[in-house]
Write a structure and sequence with these properties.
Layout lengths: L5 E6 L13 H14 L3 E7 L6 H6 L17 H4 L4 E4 L7 H10 L3 E7 L1 H14 L3 E10 L4 H15 L4 E2 L23
Parallel strand pairs: 1-2, 1-4, 2-3, 4-5, 5-6
Helix pairs in contact: 5-6
């Protein structure tokens, strides 16, 4: 078996996605990023940028997330962003040309995915990783939906069907030195 290379993927934790429903997950994500970077683990952030005439606008009627400060990553992540790449994207997934190049260059095998929204960008990133023969993990308590708990739970339900029940894990299940080579296997334990 080849060496496993984990990365923490922090999806769209942006000002415009912070609501009463998604705000409680921000400190969980910040702490997860802090722990991950403290062990010299790789982290990549994504930032969604909507645009005039996008499919989101044309087909869904959604015109948000076009300008700062909505498109900015939350200020709580600022101390951590300079240490890791930020992939700007106009699609749901991390797997833009730039994101795909990063995954390939770093030879990441296991993507630990957290962020906002569980039912869209988090889910799509996980499914795209799965379809690229990578191993996706969704850190369920480090994800939320700005639209509330129902979409979040729906996203987790669909994720279990798409990528496997055991791929949905808890942040508490990740040891403090989650990125160390000899503990990568311990990250695979399911939540619950």
């Amino acid at each position: 078996m080849s060496k496993r290379r984990p990365v923490l993927v922090v999806v769209d934790v942006q000002n415009g996605f912070i609501t009463e429903d998604s705000a409680p997950v921000v400190p969980v994500i910040v702490e997860l990023v802090r722990r991950w970077q403290a062990t010299d683990g790789d982290v990549v952030f994504t930032r969604y940028l909507n645009y005039a005439g996008s499919p989101y606008e044309r087909l869904i009627g959604w015109t948000e997330m076009t300008h700062a400060p909505d498109t900015d990553l939350v200020p709580e992540l600022a101390p951590h962003v300079g240490q890791s790449p930020v992939v700007d994207k106009r699609i749901y997934s991390l797997f833009t040309l730039e994101g795909t190049q990063l995954v390939n260059e770093h030879r990441w095998t296991d993507l630990y995915i957290c962020g906002i929204d569980t039912e869209s960008c988090v889910l799509k990133t996980a499914v795209d990783a799965f379809e690229r023969d990578l191993t996706p993990w969704i850190v369920q308590d480090a994800c939320a939906s700005h639209a509330g708990p129902e979409p979040h739970n729906a996203g987790l339900l669909v994720a279990r069907r798409f990528i496997g029940r055991s791929q949905i894990i808890s942040a508490a299940g990740l040891p403090g030195d989650a990125c160390s080579e000899n503990l990568c296997e311990s990250l695979t334990r399911p939540f619950g």
